Amino acid sequence: MKALVLAGGAGTRLRPITYTSAKQLVPVANKPILFYGLEQIRDAGITDVGIIVGDTAPEIEAAIGDGSELGIDATYIPQDQPLGLAHAVLTAADFLGDDDFVMFLGDNLIEGGITDMVDSFQADRPAAQLLLKKVPDPERFGIATLRTDGSIERLVEKPSEPPSDLALVGVYLFTSAVLGAARRITPSWRGELEITDAIQRLIDDGAPVRASVLDGWWLDTGKKDELLDANRIVLGAVERRVEGDVDEDSNVVGDVVVEAGATLVRSTVRGPAVIGSDSHLEDVFVGPFTSIAAGCRLERCELEYSVVLDRCTIRDLPRLEGSLLGRDVTLTRTERRPAAHRFLLGDHSQVEIAEG
What residues contact 39, with CB distance under 8 A and at least 6 apart? Predict the structure, then answer.
């Protein structure tokens, strides 16, 4: 069995972070989102992994390499344009051949892995098996309706009047029959070949299409608030590990990871939190659900419920919360007069300034 991982999207909802970084490599708890899915695929016993890549291919390939460090054998499959999930399947046709495969969206996080779903699929081999999750806002997703026997009757893409609350999570298991179905569909109103249309074609042909319903959490990390929520949930499972240098005037409370090479001087970190290697914190308070990546420098500031990427500098700021900072960002207080806020912000930046 093979895996097809989609890592070619532009990540427009996470701009400006994704102007300079693939959305699938934005870290959650200081590990790229994409790595969580690859590890779950590996843990399900699948090591032959095709990775669909687009404009950010060099960055994806640099992060994963041949896949050996993750325990997989990675094959990169260029997709000229993101023309839909079914288009991605057809783009990977030579790699997939006649093999069964799991398709996994590279910016999703799910609780508990996919091993049970893969085992169930391999035991019965329906034409397709989809992972579903009940959601409060089904109009935002592809939605499935089920028959009384639990098989899938119909799929609808982002319906204005949803027929159910069961959303497609972004994990699909297929036999090679889906390739034939994908070749017989036409682009949707979005100009894309929708995987929901290909699966509906299988259903209309009378092929068995089954559902697995996810009991745990599912996180789509495509927006800032969703990413922060994913970081909060994943950090909730970290175990305390302090390998960096913590001076006697610092306090590390709860489940906190301080990576080797990090230094804490007169600082407090309350977990769950992660401090990356070679980061320096001096006279700093870091509150729960915060990830600080490698090579950052924080002085005389407070930070909580935030994600800070590599090599950021934060100095002399009273408090930050609910923030996502990209790589090499500098936030400082100035003593220059006249007193004023001064910004250098890229497209699609968001800034909120407290009064006072």
Answer: 70, 71
User: pTM, whole model, 2 decimals?
Assistant: 0.85
Of the candidates 161, 158, 155, the residue with the CA atom closest to the CA atom of residue 196: 155
Report strand pairing: 166-174 vs 142-146.
antiparallel
d(CA 329, CA 331): 7
Question: How many angstroms separate the CA atoms of 305 and 307, rounded?
Answer: 7
Q: Which residues pair with 249 in a beta bridge?
A: none
Which two structure tokens, joined as six digits, stand for 53?
Answer: 């890549």
DSSP conformational letter for 231: H
CATH architecture of structural domain 2-234: Alpha-Beta Complex (3.90)
* Tens digits of residue pLDDT in 49-102: 999 998 888 989 999 999 999 999 999 999 988 888 999 999 999 999 999 999
- Strand pairing partners for 304? 321
The string over 315-333, giving b where at least 16 C-beta atoms fall within 10 Å of a residue's C-beta and e elsewhere, is eeeeebeebbbbeebebee
Q: Which residues lie closer than 8 Å to 6 by C-beta, 6 or more apart?
A: 52, 85, 88, 103, 104, 105, 106
Strands 101-105 and 31-32: unpaired
pLDDT in tens, 39-49: 999 999 999 99
Residues facing residue 298 across a β-bridge: 281, 314
Closest CA to 192 of 99, 278, 83: 83
Please name the amino acid found at residue 114.
I
In angstroms, the CA 175 to CA 152 distance is: 16
Q: Is the Cβ–Cβ distance between 214 and 118 less than 8 Å?
A: no
User: Domain 240-332 carries which CATH code?
Assistant: 2.160.10.10
All structural domains of the chain with their residue ranges: 2-234, 240-332
What span, in angstroms and rounded, lies between the C-alpha atoms of 167 and 255? 33
